[in-house]
Amino acid sequence: MSHDRFKPTRAGVINVWDYLDEEFTFADGRLVLRGHNGSGKTKALEVLFPFVLDGHTDPRRLDPFSGQNRTMKSNLLYRGQDAEYGFVWMEFARPGEGPRPETVTLVIGLRAQQHRDGVATSFFVTDKRLGVDFGLLATDNRPLTERQLKAALGEGSHHTSAADYRAAVDARLFGLGDRYVQLLDLLLALRRPLLAKDLDPEKVSDTLTAGLSPIDEELIDQAARDFANLSAVQRRFDDATTAHTAVEAFTTSYTAYLTAHARHRSAGIATALNRAEEHVTTLAGHTGALTTATAETEHLTAEVRRVEEEVNGLEAVRKGLEESEALRDARALEIELRHNDRIGRDLTEEARRLQRQSEEIDHLTAEARGVGLHIDRQRAAIADLVAEVRESADRAGVTVDGEGPADTDLTTARARAAAREADVHEIRAHLTELHRVEAERARADADAARTGTDLDDAEAACARAEAGLADVRAQVTDALRAWAHRWTDGPDGVCAPADADTLIGVLDTCGEPGAPTLPEVFTEITDPARTEAIRHEHRLTADHEALTADLADVRAEHAEIAAERDDAPPADRARTASREGRPGAPLWRLVRFADHLDPAHAAAVEGALDAAGLLTAWVHPDPDLTRAALADGTSDAYLLPAPAGHAPRTLADVLLAEEQHHVPTRTIDALLASVALLDPADVPTTGTPHVTLDSRFGHGVLVGAGPKAAPEFIGATNRAARRRERLAALDARVEALTADLADLGRRLDRAADRVKVFAIARGDLPEVTPVARAVKTVEHHATLVAGARTARAQARLRLDSATADVDAHRTRLRAVAAERSMPTAPADVDAVAAALDVFRAAHRTLHETRADIARTEHDLTERTSTIGRLTEEHRSGTRAHEERTAEHAETLLRLQTRRDGIDASAQEIIDRLRRTEDDLVHGRSVLTDLRERAAAARDGVVRAEAGIESGRSSLLLALESVLDHCAGLTPLTRPGPRVLLGVDGDHAWPAPTLWPDAQEAADRITAAVTAGGDPTGTLRAVLPPGVPATLDAFAESVGTAPVTDTALKTAATRMSEALRVFTDTLATTVDGYRVDHEADPGGIITVHVGDETGRNPLPAFARTIAERVEEQDALLRREERGVLEDELLSAIAQQIHERVRTARDLVRSMDADTRSRPMTSGTRIGIRWTRADHLTDRRRAVADLLRRDSVGLGQGGLTELRGLLRELIREYHAAHPRATYKQVLAAVLDYREWYRFELRKSVPGQDEARLTKAKHEEMSGGEKSAAIHLPLFAAANALYSSARATCPRLIALDEAFAGIDDRYKPELMGLTVTFDLDVFMTGHDLWVHYDSVPMAAHYDMHHDKASHTVSAMFMLWDGAQVVDADAGFSGNDALSSHLLGITPSRFVPLATEGTLPVAVDDAPEALDPV
């Protein structure tokens, strides 16, 4: 514990919320604010700590609950002001070299206005002391402006941004660097309200996780912007692709739609043409029929006139005969005879009627006798019915109602029966309810017996499961010990013998939620050794690859030399021009040494030529080619023959031209003769090109030497010798590399086998699934036992309740039965009901029988009266019929006598008249037939004329139909639809003005048909030119099969749906494609798409969008490589890896810290940071990569990590398409979600185990609270311990220790002292007055909402007692002065009164908002 470090001494709030000017004093670094809810204690913590270390005004960091509502602006303008200027500050001090302590004061100025968003801030870090060296308030209680405070503290203490302020605070107090942000995040996590409430190890993990630093927000923002740019390109590509796909899909549906309509309209045209041809044929037939009918009419008209004359003659003869006197008498007698015959027929009918009347009288008499017998039988039945009514009434209990005898009127009987039936229903209802509760009691009794049996069975099964668990654990433990024997000894050992106990300890928690699995613990134990084995294998692999590459290079070089492709001298870097295909060759290929030349001299000549650059210079077959190349300025060197000199010897004396076809020998000789050959003792002539026999050369101002041991390039022999030497050297190197590679391969195989050993050992681990299954079985059976016990108790309760219900229902049944004079036995009740039914039926039958007798007696009376009336009518009718019959016989005799007296002459006239009348009838019949035939002929003429007129009208209508159908085809004859329909043909569809109207076409066709023309040819001839060919092309392409309305509707529906999808799809794109369509009068829909180029037909838009897809695809690939690979993921992956490494270092420090502080029971708490269980495969792979250190990760690991992060980002964005890229990256790159903190419990004499919630509950109250707070305090201690030794070590606890028993609070406060932590605490009734705490300042808070003021009473715990103002101090300031040794003030000291403050509204400067 450091006694000379900085500690918080004071903190204050000015003009924030209802704090006008409040100062809080720390006692030995401890401050406790206590009070009721709303007293302002949490508000003071909110605006002070860790805000004074952070300076970030984000409401989520200010509000302890991480809400968005508690803004700093609302705190400043809490009292409804239009503007406000306030301060929050905190002072840290440590012992100085002199009497005065060293102090650091942090001040944050805050300014807010109603009409502006956010808060303007200014930041100060100063060594001066508030109230001693400077103040924040002027004498009139107004806060100093930023300019005034800068003047008082100095420009160097002022910082304009929160980032600069944090850097300054860290530099002055902590020295954490990048880890300073992690400290702030941890302090915010520890400040969470009610941290100790509902103690849970999982919540500790959440809190510690929240304290880890996330990825830098600036990096996330930059990456989000870059990904957004990429997304914009991707969106345009996706939009183009979507539009392209939509166009193709819609084109298919649209083409099908057009095809259906084209076929339908082509079929309509074909049908209309066929119908018109039929009408033309019919018109020709009517014309022929008119000619025939006209001739027939004329012939029949003449025949009618002839027959009419014959009929008129016969009519005159008949009239003459009818005027004869004898004929008139005979006719009068005939009339009388016919009248007498009618009278005879009437008399016969009257006789038959009188006979029927007599039979009816006999039938009615017999019926009357039957009715009388029925009445007698009914009267006898009434007595029996009355007796049955009385008997049934007695049985049903109807007569007990006191309403008189049972035989009453029907209405009374029904009422009495209904009342009794109500009694029956009531009793039956009670019986039903009684039966129900009795059945329930029986079921409850059975359930009670069954649940007892179930409980016995469950307890027995649970005991068997527990025994089975013990057996399985013993078996797996034995198997694990055998495994340890195999894998902890010898060269294949993967872990130490002591690790076997750790693995066996896993079995104790196997099957528990969140418990580590055996493979996980094995991996954790063996991970260092396995990682080292993998690294060793990787190193050997890299060496093997390097050796393999070297061997391949040597072999390639050997093959190059052996193939004589490497004979040339090294290339000159200044000669970069390509020599491929150039005529000529370099000098060394064109010459060889003379046979007589000494090898030493030959080596000297070649070395001099090589050093001078002549050996590889190019020689053209024609010097003009060389001059042309020089004129072109190609980068190369050439040789041109020089004028013949006077040198006694030249290169031509020692070099000879090779036999080749590249350069003529004369050219080579001329070149060689241009270079002098000198002896070593000769003095060269200035400017003359020469070489010497001791390897020197001279070329103008350029001179030098190129000694060489032997010639290598000039001459095939020399080149072959050089190849042999080089090949021998390479063979030796190949042999050495092959041996090294074989040895390295054996070592690599052993290393690979070593790596595989870990996987084999892991796979050889005993299967612990039986243990987990047995644990689950025990838990399952324990749950069943508890359920069975509960079920048995509930069954017993239900049985008791059911028994009580049965007794209660029986009592109610007896009471109701007595009240209604009813039996209680179900059979007796059924008997009453049956008797009641008999009573109703008998009474109803009695009433009906009496009514029937009355009706029958009335009917008998009516029948008797009718029989008497009919008998009298029959007698009178019989007498009248007899009289008329006698009169008719007398008249008939008289008429027969008169007929016998007619003479023969009259009879002859009558016969002649009859013959004339017969002839007249026949003539009239013939005349009628002729007239009918003539009328039919005239009708034929009319019909023919009507047929002609009708045929012309029908033809006109048919032609109108043809023209209408052709007009309906017009939209489909445009180029676009023709292409989609595949209709060939060069004929353009005629304009409407070129078409004849139907009347004109009908006139032309009628004239042609009348003249005998061909109907079909005439009909097609009236169509405009090119139309028949176009119609044939449409018929050939789409057909003329009929299309039903259903098919058209289906095609239209599908096209409409496709159009809707097409429109909706294009509407979702960012390019603003607009789909519009229009329908022609016939209903054909034409589709256009509008874009930035205007309104385009569908095919044109399809071509445009296809080109755009190709263009965006190429752009996307370039953007994706640039953003993903070069800028984003590398930096992100590096920072995530660094964050994880830092977190692991922190956890190791925390673990060591907590284990070094055992509890009083000896129990120690450890901390591990392990991979989370819920991770996907990709996240698991990322977490595994992050376990490596920087060296182990390497470039390959970084590349793999970058690829995995890319896939995670794409995967998350696909699942959350509405999320912004900042949200996506923040969710995907939150490495803290990939790991979890795990508390470990180590009890002396027991194996260490994970501290689960169940094990935590087993601990004592003090141990439980210590086990939770120890890791939290250790986290703060670890971070502070990694900072500067003099740094303050302050943590904040809101509603500290809420829910923890007072007995355990001293130990927890003692932990803060043990960890040397300063504390800023709040609590409802929190008192820190424990022996474990040497000193603590308390403030009892009170908030007056009416006056907008906060008051605080200062009390001090000095390690022995609580001291307040009542102990002889005048107030808080006096007690604080006693504690601090000074009387501080926030007002400007007198020495600075010369600087007059200005009003807030008049302050000219504007503070930078955060």
TrEMBL record:
Keyword Coiled coil: yes
Highest taxon in the source lineage: Bacteria
Membrane-crossing segments per the record: none
Coiled coil: 290-367, 727-754
Pfam short name (any one): SbcC_Walker_B
InterPro entries reported in the protein's UniProt record: CHP02680, P-loop_NTPase
Protein's UniProt keywords contain Lipid biosynthesis: no
Keyword annotations from UniProtKB, A to Z: Coiled coil
Name the record gives this protein: TIGR02680 family protein
Species: Nocardiopsis lambiniae
Top-level taxonomy: Bacteria, Bacillati, Actinomycetota, Actinomycetes, Streptosporangiales
